[in-house]
Amino acid sequence: MAYRSPPEIARAGVAAGATRASLPWDKALVAGFLAGAYIAFAGLLAVVTSAGLDPRIWGGVQTLITGVVFTLGLVLVVVAGSELLTGNMALVPLGVLDRRVSVGRLVFNLFWVLVGNVAGSIFVAYFLAVKTGVVTAPIDLARLGRISTGKAITETDWQIFLRAVGCNWLVCLAVWMALAAEDVGGRILAIFFPIMAFVALGFDHVVANMFFLPAAIFANVPGIGWGDVLKNWAFAFLGNFVGAFLFVSLSYWYLYVRGTREPATPTGA
Known about the structure:
Elements: H1 6-21, H2 25-50, H3 55-58, H4 61-81, H5 85-97, H6 103-130, H7 138-154, H8 157-178, H9 184-200, H10 206-218, H11 226-257
Helix pairs in contact: 1-5, 1-11, 2-4, 2-6, 2-10, 4-9, 5-6, 5-8, 5-11, 6-10, 7-10, 8-9, 8-11, 10-11
């Protein structure tokens, strides 16, 4: 199985970040919509497949199964092709650090991908999760309620932030290692374990929460309002960005890119 070495991954990451930063707003928006929908599909699958596993009997197996099936989301994003906010939080800043991408293009890309991710996630949450009745059956609704209440109500702001840091460290490692593979099977294998781990650990992924929390509101889970949703998104976004930038972009840029060649001219405004 062919693969890239860590320095080669870093160079591939710089190139990928520059490519993403160069997307026009409409393509970033459409690709972002698809990625949001893909992560929402994974969240929906995670709810349904883990709903019947009583944690008093199964213990951590419930969250393990949730993590195993949730890997579908990033597999679809990477293999089918789309723009996921949390992955771009690592790759586009890597282009900035190598001076191939301007800060303006970083903000531009993250903004339009964010808008697309929100739209895709909410579309699946409203039409394909709630209006289809998939998550409104009592057992599935109870599982969705436990997940969403934990994220929107039980966790403190600091806990959301820290869980989001850990989440996107792992998510971006999955994206990073997928760059090492030169075949589909290798990419799927690279994605599987980090994504399974972050979900099983109960970490917070801002795009996943764009599905879980609105779906809970649409399904009339008690005690959750849009203020709770926006607060969770804000702290999850900040933590996800810190996890991606500090532990992936900056660390691997310093190890494998810094000082290896003269930086290129920034692209865009």
